[in-house]
Amino acid sequence: MATMVERIGVSLNAERRFYLGMGMAILAVMFAGFAPSFYLRGMVPAYAPYLPMTSLVLLHGLLFTSWLLLFMAQVSLISTRRPDVHRRLGIAGFVLLPAMVLVALVTALGGVARHSGPPDVPALAWLAVPLLDIPVFLGLIGAALYFRRTPQTHKRLMLSALIGLTSPGVGRLPIPVPIPILIIGSIVLFMAALAIWDLRSRGRIHPVTIVATLVLVGSWVLRFAIWQTEPWLAFAGWASSFV
Questions:
Q1: What 8-state DSSP symbol labels residue 53?
Q2: What is the pLDDT of residue 74?
Q3: C-alpha dihedral sign at 52, 54, 58, 63
Q4: Residues 6 or more apart whose Cβ sits within 8 Å of residue 238
Q5: For residue 7, with 0-12 CB atoms within 10 Å meaning exposed, 13-18 middle and 19 or more buried, which class applies?
Q6: Contacts from 9-14 at CB under 8 Å and sequence distance 24+?
Q7: pLDDT top residue among 167 and 93
Q8: Quick one: which of 208, 204, 206, 205 has its CA closest to 216?
Q9: Mean pLDDT for the stretch of residues 20-40
Q10: Of 64, 127, 229, 242, whose CA is between 20 and 30 Å from 12?
Q11: Does the structure show a pLDDT above 60 at 231?
Q12: Which residues contact 47 (CB under 8 A, 6 or more apart)?
C-alpha cells in the first residue's frame, strides 16, 4: 500500500513503531493511574483514599481495559502484516463499543451518589467530566469507523479517541498540579507527539490531528466552563436521579 509516509522516505516500520509506542505509553499511564485502586488494589499503597469496589465499577474497568488491549492488539497485527486478522478482530470492537458506552453512562450517573470525583469538587459538578467523555469518544470512534478505508485518517482518529480516554488515569496520578491543568496538559502532550510524527512523516500536520486536538481540548474547556453553572447542576441532578 502506497502511503504518504513511504513517498517522503519514512518507512512503514517507523509508522508502526510510532503507533505501538503511543499505545504502550497510554497503557503505562492508565496502569500507573489505576494501579492502587483497580489493577493492584490492596497490593500497593494508595495515592489517596478510594471508594469501595462495586460490580458496576469492576465491569467498567474491565471493559475499558479490554478496549486498550484491543487497540494494542490491532496495532500489533498491522505491525506484523496481518490485516486480515486485524479486520476480523475489529468485529470485537463493534460488540465492545455499545457495552462500554452503556456501562460508562450508568457508572457516571451512579458516581454522583458515590461521590466518585475529587473530594473538593461537588458530585453534580464533576458529572460533567465522565458524562461528556461519552459523546467525545463516540464521535471520534464513529469518524474512525467511517474513514476505515482511509488508513491515515482512521489511525489518527482511533489514536485520538484513545488519548481522550487517558484523563481518568492521568487525574489519579500523584502529581501536585490542579486537575484541569494536569488533564489538558496531558492531552496536549499526547497530541503534540502525534503532530510531531505528522511533521516527520508528512512534512505538515494532518488535518485530523488538528481537529481532534481541538475537540479533545475544547471538550475539557467546556466541562470546566459549565460544571458549576446552575443549568448544568440542574441537568446533572435530573440525570443522576434515574440511577
A1: P
A2: 80
A3: negative
A4: none
A5: exposed
A6: 10/200, 10/201, 14/201
A7: 167
A8: 208
A9: 93
A10: 64
A11: yes
A12: 36, 172, 173, 174
Half-sphere exposure of 61 (CA within 13 A, CB side): 18
CB 63 within 8 A of CB 100: yes
pLDDT class of 7 with cuts at 50, 70, 90:
very low
DSSP state of 52: P
- Judged against a pLDDT cut of 60, whether residue 3 lies above it is answered with no
Widest distance between CA atoms in the chain:
57
Is the distance from CB of 172 to CB of 33 less than 8 angstroms? Answer: yes
pLDDT in tens, 83-104: 666 667 667 777 889 999 999 9
Cell, residue 32 = 500507573
For residues 59 and 61, give the distance between their C-alpha atoms in angstroms, rounded to a whole number: 5
Neighbour count for residue 225 (Cβ, 10 Å) = 11
DSSP 87-143: HHHHHHHHHHHHHHHHHHHHHHHHHHHHT-S-TTS-HHHHTHHHHHHHHHHHHHHHH
% of the chain beyond a pLDDT of 70: 90
Report residue 45 as a C-alpha cell.
499503597
State the cell numbers at 105.
Answer: 453512562
